[in-house]
Amino acid sequence: MEFETPTFSRPRRRRIILLVALLVVVFAVTGFLIGYFVMKAGQDTVKCQTDDGSDNTSKPTPTPSNKEKYHKMFQEEIKAKNIEDNLKYITSEPHMAGSKRQHDLAIFLGEKWRTYRFDVVEMPEYKVPLSLPQEDKPNKVEVIINGTIEQTILGKLEVKAEPSATKKFNYFPYFAYSPNGTVEGELVYINTGSKEDIKLLMNRTGVSLENKIVIARGMGASIRLAASLGAIGALTFPDPHSSGPSPNDTYPNTPWTSGDAVFEKTSGPKRG
């Protein structure tokens, strides 16, 4: 049997080649789009590792907002017990900036984040001018009456993580970034030490802060303003009205701070 091979004219052959090329492009684009949307849908499945070492793969229910979706997923992964355990460990010892304990906590957090499978966890070193207390020469406040030292308050405390703890740590309260020195002068109580309180005190009583040591309750005292008006020193203390109205209103009896708590304050700039 003989087969007859069809012959095509040059224009018709060109049309067939163009049609085949067009079909190849269409199939290629279709395959790309299918792969893209399949991969995009797969990205909604999140795999993470929990504190107990187990993998948790979840696919959140789609919501109109990605923000709401991931916020919901974040809330579902939070465990109150883990927060409690982490805070208990971090606050079990004083951890002043620049101390060995602070460095140990940085390593602890870095290891935690690696177990959570963060892509990159780094701990770069910075040289920062820090104001630290002199542990061999703690701050001291002396109450002098008629030339006689009636009372001495040493800026060295023995603190515990909680009342039931047995281990004690030395803690040295100080006024960060204040100049070192010894001053002596009369005390002037300036209430909360706000600009309004200082202005009211001076306008109503005519009291001058020149060469005086001011004492204020709470942490909102404007020490810079007092210094600009001539004050040579400042003492601040936690305000019982906001930190525990009575001796029993302290931790662990209430959520207030502990009875020996010291609120740190700085005389340095807030930013910079």
UniProtKB/TrEMBL annotation:
It comes from the Eukaryota. Coiled coil: none annotated. GO terms for molecular function: carboxypeptidase activity. Residues 243-257 have a biased composition (Polar residues). Keywords: Membrane, Transmembrane, Transmembrane helix. The chain crosses the membrane at residues 16-39. Residues 48-68, 239-272 are annotated as: Disordered. This is Uncharacterized protein. It comes from Desmophyllum pertusum. The lineage of its organism: Eukaryota, Metazoa, Cnidaria, Anthozoa, Hexacorallia.
